[in-house]
Amino acid sequence: MLGQVLAMGGGGFMMERDSPLDDFLLSLSPAARPRVCFVPTPTGDRGEVIAAFFEAFARRDCEPTCLRLFGTPELPAQQLARQDVVYVSGGNTANALALWRLHGVDRVLREAWERGAVVGGVSAGANCWFESSVTDSFGPELDPLHDGLAILSGSFCPHYDGEELRRPVYRRLVDEGFPSGYAADDGAALHFVGTELREVVASLPNARAYHVEPGSETPIDSRML
């Protein structure tokens, strides 16, 4: 049975205290007390981000752990095989993908999803599950990235209402041949079951997602959590 993906445009504990999006991510697991592994590779395993994760999830009914790849890494295949939920941080999408491929984490993440785990994250942690995405991984400008994990087809753009250049750059890229896909505002998240979009949920009023194709942008209604 294929798993689920929660792709957050922005939000979660990195942006909102006691975020309903984090609660919703945990609720997708059928486990009574889900084992949730934080993957902070996009941040370079920053200590303050890891501490914030444990502070946020220690208050929830779950078993939080963290997969670090800097320094002396864990054995990712063994650690991730035990998890019900995998939560990827925001940060640098391109760097995370490169390091995951070096350590075989890309394969292990796909295997986790294929066995039914819930996977997701915010910004870079949402970009990574798609074929392509819009990222600031390469510098201050926004650029297309074409080598995501491709668990989900098409492209993704986070922070659609939170950064003024996201919408015009993504629309232009799609009009010029970049894969069609989805965009999500800060506080909005797309919930996929397998590879099918189930719904859009939101932690902030008026936060929503969009299906973006050449020449068009279609809003998707969101359910307020």
CATH class type: Alpha Beta
CATH topology: Rossmann fold
Widest beta sheet: strand line-up: 3-2-4-5-1-10-11-14
User: Count of DSSP helices?
Assistant: 7
Question: H/E element string?
Answer: EHEHEHEHHEHEEEHEEEEEE
CATH architecture: 3-Layer(aba) Sandwich
Derived from helix and strand composition plus strand pairing, the structural class reads alpha/beta
- Cα(first) to Cα(last) distance is 26 Å
Mind telling me the C-alpha Rg? 16 Å
Largest sheet: 8 strands, mixed
Averaged pLDDT? 96
What count of domains describes the coordinates? 1
Anisotropy-based shape: globular
Give the low-confidence spans.
none
**Roughly what fraction of the amino acids lie in strands?**
25-35%
CATH superfamily: Class I glutamine amidotransferase (GATase) domain
Share of residues in helices: 25-40%
Number of strands: 14
Description:
The chain has 225 residues and is of the alpha/beta class. It has a single domain, classed as Rossmann fold (3-Layer(aba) Sandwich), CATH 3.40.50.880. 27% of the residues lie in helices and 30% in strands. It contains 7 helices and 14 strands. The strands form 2 sheets. The protein has an 8-stranded mixed sheet with strand order 3-2-4-5-1-10-11-14, sandwiched between helices. The protein has a 6-stranded mixed sheet with strand order 7-6-8-9-12-13. The longest helix has 12 residues, at 47-58. The radius of gyration is 16 Å and the shape is globular. It starts with a strand and ends with a strand. 51% of the residues are buried. The mean pLDDT is 96.
